[in-house]
Amino acid sequence: MSEYQAKEFKVLGQRLQRPDGIDKVTGRAKYGADTEAAGMLHGKILRSPHAHARILSIDTSAAEALNGVKAVVTRADFPTAAKGYEDVQDNCMAGERALYDGHAVAAVAATSKRIAKQALKLIKVEYETLPHVTEVEAAITVGAPIVQAGQVSKRVPEGYSDNVVRYVSFGHGDIDAGIAQADATIERTYRTEASHQGYIEPHACLATLNEDGRGDLWVCTQGHFWIRDMSCAVLGLESANLRVTASEIGGGFGGKTTVFIEPVALALSKKSGHAVKLVMTREEVLRATGPTISTLMHVKLGMTNDGRITAAYAKLFYQSGAYKQGCADFGAMPAFAPYDLENVHTEGFDVVTNRPRTASYRAPGAPTACYAAESAIDELCQQLNLDPLAVRLKNAAKEGTKSSYGPTYEDHGLIQCLEAVKDTEHWNAPLGANQGRGLAAGFWFNFGGETSVSTFLNTDGSITVTEGNPDIGGSRASISMMVAEEFGINYDQVRTTVTDTGSMGQNEPTHGSRVTFAVGMAAIKCSRSIKAEIAQRLAKTWDVAVDQVSWQDGKAHCLDASKGIEPMSLPEIGAIANNTGGPIGAHHGSNMEGAGVAFGVHICDTEVDPETGYVTVQRYTAIQDAGKAIQPDYVEGQLQGGAVQGIGWALNEEYVYGEDGRLQNPGFLDYRIPVASDMPMIDTVIIEVPNPGHPFGVRGVGETPIVPPLAAVGNAVSRAVGVRYNHLPMSPPRVLAGIQAAK
Amino acid sequence: MAHIQIFGSLRDLFAGEDSVELDVKNLRELLLKLPAAYPDCQEEIDEGVSVSIDGKIINDDWFTPIRPDSEVVVLPRIVGG
Questions:
Q1: Residue B48 lies in a domain
Q2: Is A442 a member of any domain?
């Protein structure tokens, strides 16, 4: 049944002031490292200098003897992890083997950062180095060093090393038959390198854990409920005994949905009897948190002379770090999701290596698959001299299309996004010398997930909303706006706050493009419960039937005109709440299903310096179906942020490993993310095709914007130079090599 | 009987079938009866799945109804970033 109710909005769609703006621009906002406690110690972590090594012994005696050191922990200080959390624990603190450069092997808590650093140097770790593998192509080859034995799923085909741990495939039709129908075909191999989310705020936390197993944790995270649950599973604690409070967050993008330092800080606190603060350095963030996959991808396509795609096949190898994950699933499913195809088949292989365990990065797994698919489509368009926009429109999935990964689509806005491209001034502008224009479409699923929200009517008529999802992309404003819309009141009469795990029911993290959709829907349901409660109380007060109380324009109205009762506002209702039954509030907890899929289309213009291979992005437009843009500034910000991150991945960002398996560029000097001066203004177009699964039509918007940019930039650069680049990032040496090879 | 579509690599877990028919009224019954009929899929279900029911991806809600003519597709569990 559709949740969506078409109506004219009064609050939604306005560009209202963000509630966290003043605190953030004045420096008052508290981030992860800003919390302090009396007697607080400083933690530091000792990390493996080897890509793969057996830990023969750890001697902490000299460190423990250093004046000012209060505790040293190793894996021996951790209990057996709860089932299913063994890898999480091992990633936080190595057990028998260090599996990647940067893997934690011990940690210290001391009275100062200087003493903690000094103590790390006194810890003696005896390693036996083991053969390592960091590159995906080498890792899948039979005979490669095996990272984790015994992890291979039953369905993995033969012919690969045991580092290929999981296999999936999707699709329908017959690829060979589709290829036979084609007028032109293409087969290409693509490679992408690992990138990092590049959040500006490093991981940071302050932990207290007493001997009785009760503690508190203040942390920078996308999801403090998951941080609590994972920390408890790793340390053998009860969830109710660990209260976790999320700070403001300086970016996460998927990389702050798991634990790295938090269980270590808690273990140090328990052992030392003091609060312990742990703050990662940038080098630690790059070496030891969760970057993206790197990939090796093969694509085969067939197309008719008039642009119909007759067959689409992709084989994707996703390097996911030292632990088994399911990243390749989320390349294989969305690779060809924008298209209505009779013959489509995708295969995904998860590959483990001696690299840090990968984490999500917006739409995890989709940007690279989209890069391969959209690059091949673009190259076929060039071969057949076809308009790339017309080809995408010809093949576009619509309502009723059977998707490449199985389900049949409900209504969505892909066609509208593609049509909007035609109307942009950008698409129709002329190009200069050494310039090229790229186009790409992208898809992400979105989901809802477990969500808890409480809402209260205060005695002065204002509304308080409490929820449990850290605000990354403006959710406090969006939720307040939806509540204001539901009540028919002003936005500034509602305040939404993010509360701790001891004050609210379970919540999935702020991920999956879920918060505006799911938390917003829960807040709407709370608002409706409060209105129903008000109707009950006023019916008694006015001595009328409940159905004679109606809510219109922010006031309760008595429909029985014979009573001569004036409408009552929320301040008037709040003032008599204690007389009519006590405080008025509502809680809503639900597994919010019904998220709608989101498509986006990006246009990119690049200019390439033929002498250096340096690429400049001249112009960029991101177009996306948002269902309903609650606060358009925030939606545009998501589109712009995702586009810039994708541009960085396409042009500059790259994890570089040496022969020794160590990361060569763990700092922002050598790992180059785009800065404002590198970018043009990212133009945006918001399409609104309502999601039938939300009362106001909301779709998640946070992840799809990173899906098309790799391909859009790739297609732009390739068209600018006249050379196809099939390896990201397109850094100046790679681009120049292509230009010189073509001469 | 609900018609459950089995895609790609999952078919190995369902005796090679591209679809199976089961008498289920909701997601909970589906998740119980699938491994009862096809034990090889238990591991996949234990690792976590999402199920698309009539075009909507359902992660958790056991009581989401499945009609006899519903389109049901078993998928890997959808994650996010």
A1: yes
A2: no
| Residue B36 within a domain | yes
CA distance B55 to chain A (A): 5
Distance (Å, rounded) from C-alpha A325 to C-alpha A253?
18
Q: By the CB < 8 Å criterion, does A410 face chain B?
A: yes
Confidence of residue A170 (pLDDT cuts 50, 70, 90): very high
Q: A170 CB near a chain B CB, below 8 Å?
A: yes
Q: CA-to-CA distance for A444 and A597, rounded, in angstroms?
A: 6
Q: Which helix (H) or strand (E) holds A526?
A: helix A515-542
Residue B24 belongs to domain spanning? 2-76
Any idea what the CATH number is for the domain that residue A550 is in?
3.30.365.10
Q: Is this model's pTM higher than 0.90 or not? A: yes
Q: Contact A422/A472 with Cβ under 8 angstroms?
A: no
Does residue A702 lie within any of the structural domains? no
ipTM summary value: 0.94
pLDDT tens for residues A447-474?
A: 999 999 999 999 999 999 999 999 999 9
Cα gap A397→A403, rounded to integer Å = 7
- Cross-chain CB nearest to A408 (options B12, B55, B58): B55
Say what the alpha-carbon torsion angle B36, B62, A599, A201 is, to the nearest 10 degrees: -110
Contacts of B56 in chain A (CB under 8 A): 410, 593-594, 693
Q: Of B64, B71, B75, which has the smallest distance from its Cβ to A408's Cβ?
A: B71
Task: Indicate which CATH number applies to the domain containing B52.
Answer: 3.10.20.30
pLDDT tens across A620-634, in order?
999 999 999 999 999
Residues 6+ apart with CB under 8 A from A592: A448, A449, A450, A451, A514, A517, A518, A521, A522
Distance from CA of A443 to the nearest CA of B (A): 13
| 8 Å CB contact of A172 and B7 | yes
Q: Which two tokens stand for residue A183?
A: 């007028």
- Asked whether the predicted pLDDT for residue A1 surpasses 70, the reply is no
The number of folded domains in chain B is: 1
Q: Do B56 and A693 touch (CB under 8 A)?
A: yes
Q: Is-cis flag, bond preceding A729, omega within 30?
A: yes
To probe the interface with A, which of B28, B49, B57 has the most A CB atoms within 10 Å?
A: B57
On chain B, the residues whose CB falls within 8 A of the CB of A154 are 12, 43
Query: Which domain covers residue A509, as residue numbers?
Result: 21-28+448-592
For residue A660, what are its two tokens? 């020794």
Q: Indicate yes or no: CB of A406 within 8 angstroms of CB of B79.
A: no
Q: Given CB atoms, is A253 within the 8 Å cutoff of chain B? A: yes
Take residue A432 and report the two structure tokens written for it.
Answer: 């200069």
Cα(A241)–Cα(A231) distance, rounded to whole angstroms? Answer: 11
If DSSP states are collapsed to H, E and C, what string results for A222-260?
CCHHHHHHHHHHHHCCCHHHEEEEECCCCCCCCCCCCCC
Instruction: Tell me the CA distances in angstroms from A456 to A83, A116, A261, A492, A499, one per residue in order.
Output: 39, 46, 36, 15, 14
A569, part of any domain: yes
Residue B81 lies in a domain: no
- Backbone dihedral angles phi then psi of residue A410, each to the nearest 5 degrees: -80, -175
Dist CA A120 CA A113 (whole Å): 11
Cβ-nearest to B64 among A329, A364, A593: A593
Q: How many domains does chain A have?
A: 1
